[in-house]
Specification:
mainly beta, Metal Binding Protein, Guanine Nucleotide Exchange Factor, Chain A, seven-stranded antiparallel sheet, three-stranded antiparallel sheet, disordered N terminus
Length: 165
């Protein structure tokens, strides 16, 4: 029998435009609730203050994803987060436990996004082929992007294939 009071896993607060939204992940269901009244975030994204209408749409997808470089699978998982952000191509974020870190090496490269935070980068090396800064992740994202903490994205033009099925 299904539990009448399912456990809420990782409540998340996001800001979409001017509206704080509380995201509750209950098992594999994604429930969203508009939060009324004022809410204070501990680590707010400054980008939403400057561009309050900006929307970042995160979707948890329960499908297989594989990232292939030099004919080797370098990441594989049965779930990923799809980020749709205006003016950018959609990005698939793979959970940390889906990466094969024996093919990865952290770099000193970092970038900053006013909506997500500071990104760190990794090179991929498989046999004799190496591609620099092909993988990025936000280890301490702003509150509105905390859903992608411990998830990693790949530049599609730097790896051979990213496929979801």
């Amino acid at each position: 029998m299904e539990n009448a009071n399912p456990k809420i896993i990782n409540p998340i607060v996001l800001r979409i435009g001017n509206y704080p939204v509380l995201i509750l992940i209950v098992r594999s269901w994604l429930l969203t609730f508009k939060v009324c009244g004022k809410m204070s975030l501990l680590n707010p994204a400054p980008g939403f203050l400057k561009y309050p209408g900006r929307i970042l749409n995160y979707k948890t997808i329960e499908r297989k994803i594989e990232v292939i470089f030099n004919s080797k699978i370098v990441a594989s998982s049965n779930r990923f987060i799809l980020l749709e952000e205006e003016n950018y191509a959609p990005v698939m974020y793979v959970p940390r436990d889906g990466l094969l870190f024996e093919f990865m090496e952290s770099t000193k490269c970092s970038t900053y996004c006013p909506f997500k935070g500071k990104a760190s980068y990794w090179n991929i090396k498989v046999c004799d082929k190496n591609v620099e800064n092909a993988v990025w992740s936000y280890s301490d994202p702003f509150d509105e992007a905390v859903i992608i903490k411990n998830y990693f994205a790949f530049y599609s033009d730097k790896v051979g294939t990213i496929k979801a099925y």
